[in-house]
Amino acid sequence: MRRTAEALQAGLAALDAQQLRRRVVIPPPGAIDFSSNDYLGLRRHPKLAEAMAAAAQILGAGSGAAHLVTGHGPEHDALERELAAWLGRERVLLFSTGYMANIGALAAVVGRGDLVLQDRLNHASLIDAGVLSRGRLQRYAHLDTAGASDALIQWRADNLAGGAAIVTDGVFSMDGVLAPLPQLAQIARGGGAWLLVDDAHGLGVLGANGLGSLEHFGLRADDAPLLVGTLGKAFGSFGAFVAGERDLIDWVLQKARTYIYTTALPQPVAAASRAALQLVQTEGWRRELLFSHIVRFRERCAAARIPLVESTTPIQPLILDDPGRALKISDWLLTHGLIVKAIRPPTVPAGSCRLRITLSAAHRTEDIDRLTDLLSEGLRA
Ligand SMILES: *Cc1c(COP(=O)(O)O)cnc(C)c1O
Predict the structure, then answer these.
(1) How far is CA 334 from the centre of its chain?
(2) Per the residue annotation, which of 233, 293, 341, 363 is the catalytic one?
């Protein structure tokens, strides 16, 4: 783009014309949020706020430096240990965001000339991690384990000693579908590749103990040696981590520029995450309530002939043809006090605009019923 005011205006006008211009809005207070990732309803839990306030009083608001300088403190250390114990992993390394954790984790195990295999619908941060790793980025069709396997076998035939990684969302963020982790784990093992699972939407939610997609499938830690988790979703806090074997995580610490060259997460935020971890472990009723909402939502949609994606997770998208319609229904729902965001390309593939509906233990049964009633009315209009 040339550096002119006209060029910018033309670029923005083109997005407007396609109904694809992004905008930031402050959610109206009091509206019921059906688009957050606060699956367990912990974001506003008083225990998180209290832990955060108490830590801020003692330790201060900011961390003051990167982890490897003087920014690492007792709250970080405790959170890393508690997460590792909960997950049954030898070591956990905190990152400031999931975006940065993915970039750091992948860069640690993949370099120039290595193969990076990714599901086509992986989260943008994983795709960017692949680009920044300088590896050979190759994408397979969504959930296509045969495609992933063929690509790895073919590449391995010419690169006996090269590094390779298979990278996947545990739960796909825009359609709520689970990755075929048992098959991917087997393919990765057979082809001498690392499997990196980004379980941003599975941790805290799936599995009897909320341990995520791996627990859901009954997989062991060494099936997915690199596990990325985020603390800003089901944990209702902020931050992220990479979990794995001791030496591997120490290797990530040596190599990850997104860990080394950035200010450490504030300790009050880590304290809030510790409080959240306690609740994730002790309040199993949150997962039970969430899944009863999912069942009720799907039953009521089926009765009203509202077509949904085959998702068993709290992410329950409603695919609509064009962005204008998705925006219109989203705006109409907002006038009735429901936040249901329209997700448009390039966040999702062209022609697959959607209302990304997410359910939460913070919802009441009446909220679910109101949502399905209004969706049914809005879709008929
Ligand atoms: C949200 C998300 C991230 C990014 O995590 P942040 O902590 O928000 O940066 C990474 N991967 C997936 C699959 C996500 O949904």
Answers:
(1) 25
(2) 233
Would you tell me how many other CB atoms lie within 10 Å of the CB of residue 91? Answer: 20
Reply yes or no on whether 233 is catalytic: yes
**Structure pTM?**
0.97
Q: Which of 125, 265, 348 to mutate to test the pocket of ligand 1 (most atoms within 8 A of CB)?
A: 125
DSSP letters, 191-242, are: TT-EEEEE-TTTTTTSSTTS--HHHHHT--GGGSSEEEEESSSTTSS--EEE
**How wide is the angle at C-alpha 355 spanned by C-alphas 350 and 358, nearest 5°?**
130
Q: Which atom of ligand 1 is nearest to the CA of 201?
A: 15
Q: Are 270 and 61 in contact (CB under 8 A)?
A: no
Decide if 201 is catalytic. Answer: yes
What pLDDT, in 10s, does the model give residues 2-56?
899 999 999 999 999 999 999 998 999 999 999 999 999 999 999 999 999 999 9
